[in-house]
Write a structure and sequence with these properties.
The chain is an alpha/beta fold and 168 residues long. It is built from seven helices and seven strands, in the order H-E-H-E-H-H-E-H-E-E-E-H-E-H. The chain is globular.
Length: 168
């Protein structure tokens, strides 16, 4: 199937994208984001607040080993994570329905830049303090009766879109 080994993955070029998880409570959602990050060779995950960190058997059920390939770090507070990323030259977007948010399909990206996206808690979303420190908000267009998506599904949509636009 042409899959690379975990050792090859570690040294392979990565998409210039970091994913911040802000208080994601479901271990299955966290594992799913790890697995999606592996699929698109995302640079790293930043796990904040109550977001579980590896190793954990419930996280592993959905990550299927991606927690061993994808780089990750723990930062207590998502505000600190956003500030650190911005200081390091990243453009940071919260994935959130907010006043002034840009629809994902209208977002302009520059392949020469580094990006980060912040995904929030399953009920409360991204903390307002973190949103306030981001460069903007991205909203996923939705045309049904519901006005939200599961966080791991939202991550998959956003990561795929960034992958399509930023891969070299």
């Amino acid at each position: 199937m042409g899959r690379i080994s975990p050792e090859e993955f570690k040294v392979a070029p990565k998409l210039p994208l970091t994913v911040v998880l802000d208080n994601v409570r479901s271990l299955h959602n966290v594992g799913s984001v790890f697995r999606t990050a592996d699929a698109f060779r995302i640079e790293r995950l930043v796990l904040c607040g109550i977001t579980a960190v590896p190793p954990h058997p419930e996280l592993h059920k959905t990550a299927l080993g991606a927690e061993f390939t994808v780089d990750w770090q723990r930062v207590d507070n998502p505000v600190e994570a956003v500030e650190n990323l911005r200081s390091a030259g990243y453009t940071v977007f919260a994935v959130e329905q907010a006043e002034g948010s840009v629809m994902l399909d209208r977002l302009q990206l520059d392949p020469s830049r580094k990006y980060a996206v912040v995904l929030g808690n399953e009920v409360k979303g991204v903390q307002q303090e973190a949103i306030d420190r981001c460069d903007g908000c991205i909203e996923i267009p939705q045309h049904g009766t519901k006005h939200s998506l599961n966080v791991s599904v939202a991550a998959g949509i956003v990561l795929w879109d960034f992958y399509c636009r930023l891969r070299r």
